From TrEMBL:
Pfam families: GlutR_dimer, GlutR_N, Shikimate_DH. Residues 427-531 form the Tetrapyrrole biosynthesis glutamyl-tRNA reductase dimerisation domain. It comes from Gossypium schwendimanii (Cotton). Residues 106-256 form the Glutamyl-tRNA reductase N-terminal domain. It catalyses: (S)-4-amino-5-oxopentanoate + tRNA(Glu) + NADP(+) = L-glutamyl-tRNA(Glu) + NADPH + H(+). Its EC number is 1.2.1.70. PROSITE patterns: GLUTR. InterPro entries: 4pyrrol_synth_GluRdtase, 4pyrrol_synth_GluRdtase_dimer, 4pyrrol_synth_GluRdtase_N, GluRdtase_CS, GluRdtase_dimer_dom_sf, GluRdtase_N_sf, NAD(P)-bd_dom_sf, Shikm_DH/Glu-tRNA_Rdtase. This is Glutamyl-tRNA reductase.
Amino acid sequence: MAISSTFSAAKLDSLLMNYCSSSSASFSGAYFPYQQQMKVFPRPNHGNKGMVSRNGGVRCEAAEFNAALGPQKIDLSKASALSALQQLKTSAADRYTKERSSIVVIGLSVHTAPVEMREKLAIPEAEMPRAIGELCGLNHIEEAAVLSTCNRMEIYVVALSQHRGVKEVTEWMSKTSGIPVSEICEHRFLLYNKDATQHLFEVSAGLDSLVLGEGQILAQVRQVVKAGEGVLGFGRNISGLFKHAITVGKRVRTETNIAAGAVSVSSAAVELAFMKLPESSHTTARMLVVGAGKMGKLVIRHLVAKGCTKMVVVNRSEEKVAAIREEMKGVEIIYRPFTDMLACSAEADVIFTSTASETPLFLKEHVKDLPPVSSEVGGLRLFIDISVPRNVGSCVTDVEGARVYNVDDLKEVVAANKEDRLRKAMEAQAIITEELKQFEAWRDSLETVPTIKKLRAYADRIRLAELEKCLSKMGEDIPKKTRKAVDDLSRGIVNKLLHGPMQHLRCDGNDGRTLNEALENMNALNRMFGLESDLSLVEQKIRAKVEQSQK
């Protein structure tokens, strides 16, 4: 383990002072208040390889530290005399350089948090690059991505330290949303490494959706990849994770019948409206759709499928409405600009809202003066709001003669056919399990890539040096053909010599070799050939983060 004196002293001091200031809070339960509140998916911390002595103290690997620290050598016989801060420095240095970077998801979804909280945390697509940049600016975060939809707000990161990374991201979420950290901790869920990967695969396959098998979530996962292209913090691990999740989503929908008969959020919203309307008014109720984007268009389609032949659509421009009208001939679709929204609402029995507005379109003062609706439709004006952030303020529920439903109320619709959905989910899980092994093998293989590159570079330097000596002895008038033959010979010898070691460094899941075996081989080669250990790369990452925070 290579730890430079500058890193172990001045740079590490900054990291440790921050570590010390929050250690009491972290161990008193500040990190884990969610464990008593909700379902938790625990993962063993394989990365934390600190060694504990029988008396409960932290035992440091003194030999390695002595070699790195020089005049600051640690004498084990005097370890008991070390100050608490010095012991913390050495133990923390060992922890931060030995812990493997973890994939972590910090999330809130329709299953764990109310829409009132999710809408405050929602991040518009245009803000994704900024959010990724801010997250990767945190001390313990290397890579990041944000999946923000009407049903979930999930942040995926590669963290140098699990606990510190989670703490920093949670604080960032609090800062950007205005929600206290304690409240976020009460509703969040945390998943690590394999569990985090499996969760995203299930999300992409539609297994974690409010509506099982709905297809829109796969498009939203694709959009994360598109938004992350070219963004510095959308790195190899996270981009690989999301791209593999897209593959899983496609395969599940192709190889199972999970999408057969599945409903989307939009279709569930239409279904909910018809559940609340008297059956006699299903064909006569006046429908208003506010917003003609993807969700609005799906609402219109499902209304038509239910037998509606006339509806009003309010949108910022007429272009999208005209395209929908052209696609659905035989249906009277009337366009109105946003300036006419309230006037159109006065003439509607059911109002669907699905815009990207970050502020409510309907508040109590807008609705209270609307004329009452006919008793033929139940005497209640229905607001079906499938937007996050919400387009209809919660204060509208106080208006007599109005009923407001949001995405959280769709559970009533999707509760049907539970057994059939569970059977389909089991079919999909078999595919997810298979794909999960492939992704984990790919990620494991990344551990030894630096050593593979360094070993090849080391061998090639020797080859070139010896080749130059050989050619110089052969004289200057060597024919090109001979020179090429000697060069090819040297390359062939090196390649054949490296073939065995390279094979034993690879861990792609195809030959049964475990990650531990590959890492043992990697460490052996590092020692034999004096290659720079991959642990120093982690040290460099932490050092860069600390230096960045001090600027």
